[in-house]
DNA sequence: GTTATCTGTCATCGT
DNA sequence: TGACGATGACAGATA
């Protein structure tokens, strides 16, 4: 504490009782540093008295350290030394009535230091603003995305439709809300479907288990060969409809429609097909198709022409090919116990069992993936909100810091002026003023003020 | 033709 | 041990 940086005014606490204390002014105990030293002009003038009191009031600044020295300046902005101690401390020349420190500081420090800070702050502010704008944009975008994905009206509508479309001929009436109309598909699709050629070997077959379960059988591949991925459009050959004319998104839309989650008609579908598709979806009658299957399809052709059978998903086609005797919704959505019970009600081949289990796994995983993505988006939105809040908090703290720095600089400036004024009133025995370069004011813990020569101070510090 | 996005699927891990 | 959910990674489709 005996030695502080340039910021500390030459008010140093003595280590021990000083030899020649000098009383500066009445009312304030100030032993003379030199024998016989006395204040110049015994009757203390009011101005000095007030000045001294002000100085005393600021005496705690003797131990004040500039905060900028204590922490990482680079974290916010680089700080110049806040107060130029021109003429004090180590200064060599000093006039009897120097310009006030505040004048110096106002010309140097404030302009030289803070004038540099303010732009930095403004710069940050600009950045923050830009960041906010960007983040807000993204946030809005994502919020829109998330909210759009929900499509509550569609969901409610579909759920209503699902509930009303519960089914015919199944032994167990499923209570799952998610049971979609497609559950009414005649999986055994006998008759017309008897000659249905599986497209599994012709189309994308990414759904096939690649080792996690036994290879699937298909009419074309009874042994359960695993064809590689192929384009859906590369060769769809359906006898049960115009599926070969279906686009992938149509198939997906159908597949999505069987999803048990809220995003029945995905945002993508909405974007891709627009309101017409949505209305079509909403207005789809879920009627019995020409084959008697109750299906819904947002791509149904207008009335009057042969209705387009719902584009079957790959698993649906496989199930059809292998004559799985229950709907996919049940395969996917039934609890494991009910599912196992369902399996016991039928005698299924190994291929059928494998397919059913794969369908169940894929169906659940599809839902899980959708939920996972939804959560991810929500998480991103949440993090962006948090980021915005932290940006705001940082800016607020930076502003607060700037204000404190201004405040501190002002106080130091004022202290310097007071210090100068006190010295201007001090006179030695010969009536000569004490040089502020040679002496400094010290305050002891008991509150007494001493005028201490720097040489003595050096020795005291050395000891 | 390139790129971004969406979606389904698989593999893997943890419960 | 199997079922299941979560999630990263990948691939295909599409705008």
UniProtKB/TrEMBL annotation:
CDD domains: bZIP_NFE2-like. Residues 355-418 form the BZIP domain. The keyword Transcription applies. Residues 175-196 have a biased composition (Polar residues). One of its GO terms (molecular function) is DNA-binding transcription factor activity, RNA polymerase II-specific. It comes from the Eukaryota. Residues 161-264 are annotated as: Disordered. It holds the Pfam family bZIP_Maf. Residues 205-220 have a biased composition (Low complexity). Keywords: Activator, DNA-binding, Nucleus, Transcription, Transcription regulation. One of its GO terms (cellular component) is nucleus. Transmembrane segments: none annotated. PANTHER family: NUCLEAR FACTOR ERYTHROID 2-RELATED FACTOR (PTHR24411), TRANSCRIPTION FACTOR NF-E2 45 KDA SUBUNIT (PTHR24411:SF26). Belongs to the bZIP family. CNC subfamily. This is Putative transcription factor NF-E2 45 kDa subunit. It comes from Scophthalmus maximus (Turbot). The lineage of its organism: Eukaryota, Metazoa, Chordata, Craniata, Vertebrata.
